[in-house]
Amino acid sequence: MTEQSQAQPRVEIYTKDDCPYCEKAKDLFDSKDVEYEEYNVTDDEELFEEMVERADGRKTAPEVFIDDELIGGWDDTSALEETGELDAKLGLADESSDDDEIVEHRPLIIAGTGIAGLTAAIYAGRANNDPLVIEGDEPGGQLTLTTDVANYPGFPEGIGGPELVNNMKEQARKFGANLKNGVIESVDDSTDPFRVELKNGDVYTADAVIAASGASARTLGIPGEDELMGYGLSTCATCDGAFFRGEDMLVVGGGDAAMEEATFLTKFADTVYIAHRREEFRAEDHWIDRVHEKVEDGEIEIMKNTELTEVHGSQEEGVDYVTLVENDEGHPTDRLDDPETDEFEFDVGAVFLAIGHTPNTGYLEDTGVEMDADGYLETQGGEGGGQTETDVPGLFGAGDVVDYHYQQAVTAAGMGSKAALDADEYLDDLERAESAGEIEAATADD
Ligand code: NDP
């Protein structure tokens, strides 16, 4: 499909330890057989300063350069990958983007390499359904952002998120799944087989599709957010926390992710502040207890009924301070006219948003698949409550694109396996119907 058409340009990647997005960036170049120089800035002040200077002041890893041109972090790199521009910069000719040329037909395409997609790939590979797995914007999914997965059965000592994902990728490949970098632009369910178009223009066809494309980190849409994302504002504490050693840090949110990130950040922060918009936390007791231990140790302070309304700072200097609003009744941004609402400025050197996720289902918008108001897929069907069938026969959903409630690695894995089994049954039925049709046609010809 792609081939090297000229000498490879020089690729440099600044990385740090425990940085899932750094791993994603390296995986992307590895998958293209592109060589790169890696500079790990962990505990190397001089190298870190060099990275910040070359990256126009951004204090986030990874930072990717191609022939000295700043490409940026993972988001910027994967955005270029989606449009095919990354291949152009790397001198990789893309022969497959000719208008309507179909790159390949597969019995099954799986969207996403999170826990749901990879489990589906393992099952589908074992069922000889020759799955092609499209990695999507966030290869490895949300678990690559988790340092320690303590509740996945079978690992009494816990396991690192990236390690669990990498093990599953290896297992999927072992059973014959192919993993491909790329992001699906659209699925056309008006054709038979389905037509699956990637953002770089590549078109595949498939008899069945499993949507396991997960959900992406939400942002607040407040002033300063766009400008300072990557410059002290982040949605990934494990990626960026270490860059703000000694600073006061703010975590926004009241779910498990906010509690986990706040606990993690105490390793680096002077004090971690958690701002949550109401009185009760949504997080599990386990996480709340851990946070309260840190509160007792003086490492975390909790600000309830408080919301972030603006982040102040500059790309050169990073986050300087934030504006917060507080009202004892909760949801203060809904009560800005209330005289009881207090607005105040607060000094912090870094801000981490942990306010949940939005499902990645835009590529299914033009299909007949039902979605709820937030974009989660509506599924039903399956024997014994399988719940992976959408309204479109042959199109299945699994993991966080469907499940906004449980959102656990183990439930995503369970659903991925169900989707692969349902898809296998669908493909078997299709094959039987096709061969019955062929026999009928042959008999009619006689
Ligand atoms: P959740 O949806 O559980 O929590 C999001 C939090 O952000 C809520 O407290 C919510 O407030 C708050 N929030 C949402 N929107 C806004 C906004 N606009 N302004 C201010 N606050 C906002 O998401 P998580 O990412 O925390 O967790 C998702 C799933 O992943 C859960 O099932 C969780 O159990 C799991 N998880 C498990 C972990 C573990 O055990 N290791 C770690 C991380 C996640 P409100 O409560 O008022 O709605």
UniProtKB/TrEMBL annotation:
One family from Pfam that matches here is: Glutaredoxin
Sequence ranges assigned to domain FAD/NAD(P)-binding in this UniProt record: 108-416
A Gene Ontology molecular function term of the record? oxidoreductase activity, acting on a sulfur group of donors, NAD(P) as acceptor
Looking at the record, the residues that make up the Glutaredoxin domain are 11-71
For the biological process aspect of GO, one term held by this record is: cell redox homeostasis
Report TM segments: none
Member of which family?
Belongs to the glutaredoxin family.
State the protein's name.
Answer: Thioredoxin reductase
Q: In which organism is this protein found?
A: Halobiforma nitratireducens JCM 10879
Upper classification of the organism: Archaea, Methanobacteriati, Methanobacteriota, Stenosarchaea group, Halobacteria
